[in-house]
Amino acid sequence: MATILFPSARLSSTSSTLAAQKSPLIPPSSAKPHLPILPNKPLLTTLTATIAATSILTATPPSLAESFQVYYGTAASAANYGGFGGNSDKKASAEYVYDVPDGWKERLVSKVEKGTNGTDSEFYNPKKKTEKEYLTFLAGFRQLAPKDVVLNNLALSDVQLQDLIAGADSLVSEEKKDGDGQMYYVYEIDGVGKHSLIKVTCAKNKLYAHFVNAPTPEWNRDEQTLRHLHESFKTVGSY
Predict the structure, then answer these.
(1) What is the four-CA torsion angle of 5, 9, 10, 16, rounded to 10 degrees?
(2) Alpha-carbon span 173 to 178, nearest angstrom
(3) Strands (E), the chain
(4) Which GO terms describe its cellular component (predicted)?
(5) The whole model's pTM is what?
(6) Which helix (H) or strand (E) holds 204?
(7) Which candidate, 234, 225, 169, places its Cα nearest to that of 199?
(8) Displacement of CA 50 from its chain's centroid (Å)
(9) Of 13, 21, 23, 20, nearest to 43 (Cα)?
């Protein structure tokens, strides 16, 4: 909500000017003292214009979602997926975490999907299902390869990512380390009608890739929230 700040400085200046323009006082012998008439119309015009300008300047941009839930991912293999008690103590056995906006829905990942492309978890905005975040993992990776090699390998099992890269207007990649020295590759792809943020790291002999995707209209509306989701992903536990 925009905050309207009453323009006290301007009113004070106007009042001083008005005081200077008062008519000379009538001597005490007059039956009815003459009171100066304040120029109400200009003052109201100034006040209205100032309030309007203040409202524009203090209008707040779209904010983050009111709250988030932390998702604890276990990156279990397809063979162990959905076993007894599989969801009973995810926090204790979590290998990675990321934030999920309140109101987003979880899409249950099948064993077949987990076994073929490594998708481990996925959440989406029920108002626009293509606005989503998800994580994939691949076993057998001790360390990160060069950034372009990693991205190309991710695209091998993701046709939509292949198309996004092929038609991208821009693709930016960089390396970042967290406070524990863990290395992450981050990618930002601005494609045709779609925006994607990707964050990749290696830990526990696995490669983890976290994706945040949104159509361009939703990206323009929710960019701050989507960037928060992207930045919230990290691996946990011993490396």
Answers:
(1) 150
(2) 16
(3) 68-73, 96-101, 105-106, 119-125, 128-139, 170-177, 183-191, 194-203, 206-215, 234-235
(4) extrinsic component of membrane; photosystem II oxygen evolving complex
(5) 0.70
(6) none
(7) 234
(8) 32
(9) 13
